[in-house]
Amino acid sequence: MKCSVVILNWNGAEMLRKYLPSVVQYCPATISGNTSAAGIETEVVVADNGSTDESLQVLAKEFPAVKTIVLDRNYGFAEGYNRALEQIDSEYVVLLNSDVEVTENWLTPLLDYLETHPSTAAVQPKIRSWVHKDRFEHAGAAGGFVNALGYPYCRGRVLWKVEEDKGQYDTIVNVHWTSGACMCVRTQVYKECGGLDAAFFAHMEEIDLCWRMRNAGYLLACVPQSVVYHLGGGSLNYESPRKTYLNHRNNLLMIYKNHKHPFGVLFVRFFLDYAAAFFYLLQGRWGAFKAVFQARWDYQKMRKAY
């Protein structure tokens, strides 16, 4: 198999019913065009992360053509994908969130770019919001970057503010990271660079992997000729203290692991993180306030492993 589109699912039976049909519909259409990516054999795979709902029954009855990988428990986003990809030997893999609706011809530009740019390890499409389809979506938008202090941002999104898509980011551009909502990556490079860090569990694990791929000498790109729509917030919403905890902890680990000069950045972040914690407190978000302190404490313990 040349390309596998892999969707990680956990208790997402209704998500599968809602979004999987577009993936099944447009994968065959994608590989019948006239570009250099035409004719690439593609499969759709759902890796079930220990679901306890009716996900497996839905897949068997309603999507019999979709290959299923069944994991014995919920390993989280990072390790779930790692374990799924152990069973896949395709040249290219698309990591696709279960709440993404794809469009006609979405896959061809991504594969075509990788086929013609051997130094590029991974690409992403333009990611718009499924709810507000004229606007970018938070998780990836039109390509991700990391600023001098280690904070991720995107073309089309800074912090929680997203832009309307008016074609302002329709150029292909090299980026610092490609979104885990929809990332097309060379399988060999994914495995050579260690895959997603299981210790992250979820959130920023794809940015960490992309940073490692860039440190290994590879390029990454956003190819906005491909468009998908992402619901976002499917597992943890913006206000979730758990999400705040994972974002703060994993961001610190990512900097410590990958930055060429991490200690100056981490010194500044010490003060900025606690400033953020007290900002949450002023907002009345007591859970988020505590999450920052817990994140910094766990970061100090976990960094010894690196």
Question: Any descriptors?
Answer:
9-stranded mixed sheet; globular; alpha/beta; 9 helices; two-stranded antiparallel sheet; 306 residues; 13 strands
Give the helices and strands, then pairings.
Layout: E1 3-9, H1 13-30, E2 42-49, H2 55-62, E3 67-71, H3 76-85, E4 92-96, E5 100-102, H4 107-116, E6 120-129, E7 144-146, E8 152-154, E9 157-158, E10 161-162, E11 173-174, E12 182-186, H5 187-192, H6 205-215, E13 219-230, H7 241-258, H8 262-282, H9 286-302
Parallel strand pairs: 1-2, 1-4, 2-3, 6-13
Antiparallel strand pairs: 4-12, 5-13, 6-12, 7-8, 9-10, 11-13
How far apart the termini lie comes to 35 Å
- Strand residues, percent: 15-25%
Number of strands: 13
Shape: globular
Mean pLDDT level: 92
- Low-pLDDT regions: 29-38
Largest sheet: 9 strands, mixed
Tell me the radius of gyration: 19 Å
Kindly state the percentage of residues in helix: 25-40%
Structural class: alpha/beta
Instruction: Please work out how many helical segments DSSP would assign.
Output: 9
Q: Name the helix and strand elements from N-terminus to C-terminus, one letter apiece.
A: EHEHEHEEHEEEEEEEHHEHHH
Textual characterization of the structure:
This protein is α/β, with parallel strands linked by helices. 39% of the residues lie in helices and 22% in strands. The protein is built from 9 helices and 13 strands. The chain has helices at residues 13-30, 55-62, 76-85, 107-116, 187-192, 205-215, 241-258, 262-282, 286-302, and strands at residues 3-9, 42-49, 67-71, 92-96, 100-102, 120-129, 144-146, 152-154, 157-158, 161-162, 173-174, 182-186, 219-230. Strands 1, 2, 3, 4, 5, 6, 11, 12 and 13 form a 9-stranded mixed β-sheet that branches. A two-stranded antiparallel sheet has the order 7-8. It has a two-stranded antiparallel sheet with strand order 9-10. The longest helix is centred in the C-terminal third of the chain and has 21 residues, at 262-282. It is globular, with a radius of gyration of 19 Å. Residues 29-38 have low confidence and may be disordered.
